[in-house]
Amino acid sequence: MREYTTQMDAARKGIITPEMMQVALKEYRTSEEIRELVAKGQVAIPANVNHKCISPEGVGSMLRTKINVNLGVSRDCKDYNIEMEKVMAAVDMGAEAIMDLSSHGNTQPFRQKLVAECPAMLGTVPIYDSVIHYQRDLATLTAKDFIDVVRLHAEDGVDFVTLHCGITRKTIDQIKKHKRKMNIVSRGGSLVFAWMCMTGEENPFYEYYDEILDICREYDVTISLGDACRPGCLADASDVCQIEELVRLGELTKRAWEKDVQVMVEGPGHMPMDEIAANMKMQQKICMGAPFYVLGPIVTDIAPGYDHITSAIGGAIAAQNGAAFLCYVTPAEHLALPNVEDVKQGIIASKIAAHAADIAKHVPHAMDQDNAMAEARQCFDWDKQWDCSLDPETAKAIRVDRSPEFDDTCSMCGKFCAVRSMNKALAGEYIDILG
Q: 322 and 187 in one domain?
């Protein structure tokens, strides 16, 4: 039996856990540095005691920016085998976390399969599963029903749960008073809001927060404090509903830390580029450095089919300014459940954003791969270029499809290639262009 309950409990007792040691190796830091950051709450290591095959990751603004991939079936797309294919593809492409957002059918076997087979961090949103688990309409569920599903997910081995604890009955009045273009676009937040409206009761995730903390402490589940009032369009960014909820999330972060429960805080959403940095700094201040987990941010509302790009732009800015965890966005965002190709495009876009931010933040060894790519390009080592690529198959396929006449060129420049000309000039060789 271990001497601690959670990673935070161990860190505060001066204990360096196996998970902390693994994170330290991945981050090129000492185990003691990681322990100190976990003790402060500035790094979370989501690792449920029942998730035995996990490869632990640290989430914190001073570490490598991590990527989450949302998956799961819906009433219109019910094939769990396809979702498992997406999971394996996501892990192969370097996603550090998978969130199962299934909203149809018997969800528990798929969740348990993920825990048994997936080495990435696993997250869920228990309120989604509540209606499905009980097969009852939202208004008939009780606060106890919701809390019991949180416990079920914890027992199954989920590493982090998104809980929309920060909206209260006061939020109902705010939403009615402060007219938003998009109201609440958080699926979980809207369900909590609807339940409060229909029952007249307080948000159970807020009212029974201490009971939830006890569950999370028992299984070492990290709470991801969901932002129910995240902006769903540029016009709603940084409004009173979003900011007041963030203040409440700061209070809930402190209460969780008092019970040694690890916390991540979720953030926007749709947001103009010039507001992103300020929002990141505000979160760090209000939530005392707790890791910030952002969806995007999506920097324009007019690019359906290309929101993996709008999200990558916002994600790079957010991560450079303190966000620790990026939730990927796919080309299917706002349109449909993503297919395998959408998942790939979303992950690659998010990985580019995260990597660019890590370079800007001077994360240790972040630019090693870029330096290796530069060396490979300088000497036309194509195999090494594929090895350095985020998506080797795509890069290689493009070159093969439009292969050049000469191997030391590409089909765009041919013998006008600057690298080729410079190599020959510096070596004192004759530079042939037309031959």
A: yes
What's the chain's length in residues?
435
What type of residue is 176? K
- On whether the CB atoms of residues 182 and 225 are closer than 8 A, the answer is no
For residue 327, list its beta bridge partners: 68, 295
Q: Where are the alpha helices (DSSP H) in 321-417?
A: 340-360, 368-378, 382-388, 392-401
- Domain check: are 79 and 221 in the same one? yes
Please report the pLDDT score of residue 1 as a whole number. 75
User: What local confidence, expressed as pLDDT, does residue 179 receive?
Assistant: 87
Structure token pair of residue 89: 């593809």
The verdict on residue 219 lying in a domain is yes
Amino acid symbol at 45: I
Nearest Cα to Cα of residue 94 among 116, 67, 128, 56: 67
Q: What are 361-370's contacts with CB under 8 Å, separation 24+? A: 361/61, 361/62, 361/319, 361/320, 363/62, 363/63, 363/64, 363/65, 364/27, 364/28, 364/29, 365/28, 366/64
Q: Which two tokens stand for residue 117?
A: 């087979």
Give dist(CA 305, CA 434) in Å, integer. 43
Asked whether the predicted pLDDT for residue 77 surpasses 80, the reply is: no
Q: Is the pTM of this model over 0.85?
A: yes
Range of the domain at 245: 60-360
**Looking at the domain assignment, is residue 28 inside a domain?**
no
Same domain, 232 and 135: yes
Number of structural domains found in the chain? 2
Sign of the dihedral defined by the CA atoms of residues 133, 139, 141, 144, in that order: positive
Cα–Cα distances (Å) from 309 to 280, 344, 378, in that order, read 20, 13, 29
Both tokens of 435, joined, read: 């031959």
The CA-based angle 26-62-236, given to 5 degrees, is 125
Does 262 fall in a domain? yes
Mean pLDDT of all residues in 99-115: 90
3-state secondary structure of 23: helix
Residues with Cβ < 8 Å from 401, sequence gap 6 or more? none
What is the pLDDT, as a whole number, of residue 406?
83
The CATH number of the domain holding residue 194 is: 3.20.20.540
Amino acid letter at 346? G
Residues 82 and 210 in one domain: yes
